Amino acid sequence: MKNKLTFLIVLFIVSCSSKAASVDTVSVFSSFMKKDIKCIIVKPDSYGKKETFSVVYLLHGFGGNYINWIGKVPAIKEYADAMQLIIVCPDGGFSSWYFDSPIDPKYQYESFISNELISFIDSTYKTTKSPKARALTGLSMGGHGGIYVGLRHPQTFGAIGSMSGALDVTYIKSNYQVEKRLGDTITFAANWTNHSNFAMIDTMSITNQKIIVDCGTEDFVLPFNEELHKLFMKRKIKHDYILRPGKHDWNYWSNAVYYQLVFFKRFFDEGTGK
Length: 274
Prior knowledge:
Blueprint: H1 2-18, E1 22-30, E2 35-43, E3 54-59, H2 68-72, H3 76-83, E4 85-90, H4 109-124, E5 134-138, H5 141-152, E6 159-163, H6 178-182, H7 189-194, H8 197-203, E7 210-216, H9 222-235, E8 240-244, H10 250-271
């Protein structure tokens, strides 16, 4: 009886472990920046059974790195399983703002995210190689990147989002190293205008991408998000805009990421005919 019980316990443990998402840590070389970029790749439990998967690219915030999401929200492994997604968390530098910096060749993160990273993931993993199966989002600085990079590359990302996004750097004059990426606001004033989400949206063609933007009602970046929502409404750009109680912290993002993944999963299922 004891041996049988032991066998059943071991069988249960093996069964549970065999159905868990797996996590890879990889280095992706960027020819644009001449350096390796670390990334976390979360693969769902069915990775070896299905042919291809949709991918969500998840960006970190200012001062963060590639391990933030998996370290702070380990539940994203469960979400990858439940929604049958690959989740990619690239390192975006301490303060890249996901720009191609016009003054610093070591910071070309727009090109890395939209080009080199996509090529690496699609050639290395079992992905569905279509914008209908790709989404880009992130928190704070990563929310800025989700909108900025995403809107500029609709042929790559069919869905984009932002959580607590610091969405327009023209208002961020100090403390967040934007000037290191764009130059000072006087000599390089044109850089700030040219890299403004709001200026870009005000003149861009209407996009057919699926867009989700959310922010906490007690968050200091709420005015950016309200302004983005108004600008989208003015331009008649379809989007989901969600406000819920919360601050600029991991308590909020741990909750928000689940809802964004559900939003993207629905988009993927519609686009791939599932």
